[in-house]
Amino acid sequence: MAKVIMIQGTMSGAGKSLLVAGLCRIMKRDGYRVAPFKSQNMALNSFVTEEGLEMGRAQVMQAEAAGIAPLVCMNPVLLKPTNHTGSQVIVNGRVLGNMSAREYFYYKKSLIPDIKNAFRKLEELADIIVIEGAGSPAEVNLRENDIVNMGLAEIVDAPVLLTGDIDRGGVFAQLLGTLMLLTEEERKRVKGLIINKFRGDRSLLDSGIEILEEKGGIPVAGIVPYMDIQLEDEDSLTERFEKKEKGKIDIAVIRYPRISNFTDFNVFEQIPEVSVRYVVSVEGLGSPDMIFLPGSKNTMSDLDWMRKNGLEAAVKKMAEKIPVCGICGGYQMMGEHIFDPEGMENGGTMKGMGLLPVITSLKREKVRRQVHGTVNKMEGIFSVLSGLEFDGYEIHIGESVRSASHTGECSESGHSPHRFEISYAEAAFMTGSNKNVCGTYIHGIFDRAAIATVLVAALAEKKGLSIGSKSCIDYMDFKEKQYDRLADVLSEYLNMEAIYGILREANIR
Fold first, then answer.
1. If we measure between CA atoms, which residue out of 420, 418, 423 comes closest to residue 440?
2. Who's near 470: CB < 8 A, 6+ residues apart?
3. CA 319, CA 292: separation in Å to the nearest integer?
4. What string of DSSP letters covers 42-80?
């Protein structure tokens, strides 16, 4: 029903995600119905589909490039790390449970029927499926139970393009070493090699390419230059965390150990006057114009981390003068108490930052839904957001309710006779007596051009500055242009005739 081709890499960060996105956009522009697929993704940045199912954002980005709505069948297995040795396992968009790395290693082959079913659903919608692998297919210790690299290629009978990252050095050793560690049957699946992220004079590679093709026995299908493309990257490999420069408007995002969904702030990076810095210490916090507390995979542990390193006290002090906004886990931290009666995180009760009149009780059931509406009436600097339309999605465990007062008086269970549940589909933000602070459960709420732009304009006005009209961006329109840029570059530097030839020779599913 569909032709398939798979991008595998010599290592994590070789550029697989962007290559898949670029191929999806090229094939879409060539008139094909194309869709991305990754059987297993490990990421803390996730998304909720219209059906209320959770999937990795990398496949959402690739679906956007393909011009189709993201579907959970594009990413049937999502692993969200909870610590260094374990993850929450999400299958077909729903939480299966938490597993250690060893437990999951022996369990994952039982997920093959789910992966096959998801792939079959996708086949009904696409002429071509572009598959992304994970890490490297040469991880020989993991080969036995592989469901995402050559193991998946065998299941769906996919030809493979193998890419290496020349920017890190040793690309010939990467590619040839990977081929050497594959079995004979696996090597037969590799139909082309790609050298990615090249800088410099292309002609200097010629002799190396000859040796690579001679020793590897596989043609080079493209030498792709290093591209400054502003699209979402894998959260575990992002370079965003290393940016330290300050713009006219300086936004600080607290980077706690289990930070999640920091894609919420990508839109601000596209406004020329704005810098987004990810902060891990009081010293690094400096004097920002606004602070965000982002999502967290473990709210209680990350709040404890902030408490111990002094960032909690610093943020609370700054909230007297500058705006502070918490999203999802960050919003839960800003409340008065966090209760964990079922041991979903650390168990027990934890005092919050006390910036918002909110009490949170963590619960086993995860909330997953898309939301649309208009921002409730706000005060202070956030008043510029009042009445603006928004789109977004919620992914969280826990119910947050307004407390009786700012004193935090409540029972051990988190119940208060004066509380009421907060409807985020209608209200969007929770505010308190301090007009500088607000919180929300809604991811992606700043992606609409008006919301991000008017907030930045208000921050600029507070400093006696003004921002130009060029700052008014529509983030979705910006991403569309980036997908086209990506496709233009890949069309020039990949041998698309050879790649379409590989597809023509591939078996029809």
1. 423
2. 272
3. 11
4. E-S-EEE-TTS-EEEHHHHHHHHHHTS---GGGSSEEEE
What tens digit of pLDDT does each residue of 175-190 get? 999 999 999 999 999 9
Look at residue 86 and tell me whether its pLDDT is greater than 90: no
DSSP category for residue 292? E
| Cα distance between residue 230 and residue 151, in whole Å | 32
- Other beta carbons less than 10 A from residue 52's beta carbon: 17
* DSSP class per residue in 95-155: EEEEEEHHHHHHHGGGGHHHHHHHHHHHHTT-SEEEEE--S-TT-GGGGGG-SSSHHHHHH
Q: Positive or negative CA dihedral for 367, 372, 374, 380?
A: positive
Active-site annotation holds for 328: yes
208-211: long-range contacts at Cβ-Cβ below 8 A with a sequence spacing of 24 or more? Answer: 208/172, 211/172
Could you tell me the two tokens for 189?
A: 């699946």
Euclidean distance between CA atoms 228 and 231, whole angstroms: 9
Binning pLDDT at 50, 70 and 90, where does residue 133 land? very high
Q: Kindly tell me if the per-residue pLDDT of 415 is higher than 50.
A: no
Name the active-site residue from 73, 325, 328, 438.
328
Contact 380, 35 (CB under 8 A): no
- The span from the CA of 307 to the CA of 248, in Å, is 29
**CB-count exposure of residue 120 (10 Å: 0-12, 13-18, 19+):** middle
- In sequence order, the 6+-apart residues with CB closer than 8 A to the CB of 418 are 403, 404
pTM for this structure? Answer: 0.87
Q: Which residues are registered as beta bridge partners of 274?
A: 249
Cβ(130)–Cβ(27) under 8 Å?
yes
Which range has the worst mean pLDDT, 92-106, 319-333, 386-400, 419-433?
A: 419-433
Residue 443 designated active-site: yes
For residues 236 and 43, is the Cβ–Cβ distance under 8 A?
yes
Q: How confident is the model at residue 211 (pLDDT cuts 50, 70, 90)?
A: very high
